[in-house]
Amino acid sequence: MKFILRHKLSILYGISLAVLLLVLKWLEIKFIIYDHSLEIYIGAIALLFTGLGIWLAIKLTKPKVQVVEKEIYIQQNGDFVFNEKAFEKTGMSKRELEVLELMAKGLSNQQIADSLFVSLNTIKTHCSGIFFKLDVKRRTEAVEAARRMGLIP
Amino acid sequence: MKFILRHKLSILYGISLAVLLLVLKWLEIKFIIYDHSLEIYIGAIALLFTGLGIWLAIKLTKPKVQVVEKEIYIQQNGDFVFNEKAFEKTGMSKRELEVLELMAKGLSNQQIADSLFVSLNTIKTHCSGIFFKLDVKRRTEAVEAARRMGLIP
DNA sequence: TGCAATTTCACCCGAAAGTATGAGTGGAAA
DNA sequence: TTTCCACTCATACTTTCGGGTGAAATTGCA
Q1: Strand D: which positions are within 7 A of a protein CB?
Q2: Are the beta carbons of A147 and A93 closer than 8 angstroms?
Q3: What is d(CA B121, CA B113) in angstroms, rounded to the nearest whole number?
Q4: CA nearest neighbour of A143 among A109, A102, A114
Q5: Who among A48, A57, A108 is closest to B58 (CB)?
Q6: Nearest to A61 among B58, B108, B144 (CB)
């Protein structure tokens, strides 16, 4: 069933061609026309006008535009205060905090590297430092911990 | 000039018909076919396949997708309230939400699997579903998006 | 100027995450 | 009863992450 739905148009077109051939066969019997050049000629006409129809439809019909509304959720929490004390307690450097913030936004190490114009290896090093200082193992854990400590909103 | 531009399509179609007639005439001379039913038959074929072409084109042309971004503001006042509407809009299942919550706590896929007493592969499948429905690529991104939408605290 | 901390980068390797595809099961709806 | 969907699990593969280690370059401060 899936196959039929997926190839609906191909199948329909195939059927159309089959019908055309049948019509031609019928004509052959009807008029006892054995000159095959007529069949070829009719086929050419059919193709030509199919093309014409497609061209006409494309030119005449207004371009179909499907408007998709994408909702963007924006959180406005002005009540975030950076916990300076907690930050100092971790012993994190400024650069590490920068990386942590980008990490919390969901960026990959490569994206963070590109944002800060440094190499991927550098970001990895910073990550290791962050994980060590926050006493965590994974980036998601780090983000969770940092949020609880008030280092990021 | 204006007239030509305005009636471009009509003119072209007229020309097409004229060409068809000429072709028919040429055939009449060429094959000395005096049976007018053939002309009628060819005309019918032409019309039929023009229609087929139009129908095909209409069916085949994909609507251009235009994404309109709609901003939704959420005010966060201290304590967390679950955004039911946003949740329904994502189309996520209950199970996926469960996985998302554990994910946001910083658990690894294996830990989530152990918590929910299912296999690691199952969690991976759920993760893929979550990422698709939240339109993100990574777990950290998913957590960020879910938090903004008010799905998790 | 010299030292310490920070920042930068590199390489290797294993673990974890994520993709793609297919499939089986049970419950609810049509 | 059939169909649909959520949930489950699997295999195979690619990409990203993170650990370990070492080492330049830079910066800030004594």
Answers
A1: 6-12, 16-23
A2: no
A3: 8
A4: A102
A5: A57
A6: B58
- Select from B147, B3, B26 the least CA-distant residue to B76: B147
- Asked if residue B77 lies in contact with residue B113, where contact means CB atoms within 8 angstroms, the answer is no
Question: Among residues A92, A99, A151, which one has the least CA distance to residue A122?
Answer: A99
**Rg of chain A in Å (alpha carbons):** 34
Q: pLDDT, tens digit, for every residue of B111-145?
A: 999 999 999 999 999 999 999 999 999 999 999 99
Separation between Cα atoms, residue B153 and residue B146, nearest integer Å: 9
Chain A to chain B, count of Cβ pairs less than 8 Å apart?
171
Q: Which amino acid would we find at residue B59?
A: K
Parallel, antiparallel, or unpaired: how do β-strands B64-75 and A65-76 relate?
parallel
Please tell us whether the domain made up of A84-149 is placed in CATH 3.40.190.10. no
Give the start-to-end residue ranges of the domains of chain A. 2-60, 84-149
Q: Tell me which residue of B130, B106, B136 sits closest to A108, measured CA to CA.
A: B136
First to last CA, chain B: 66
Highest mean pLDDT among A104-108, B13-17, B69-73: A104-108
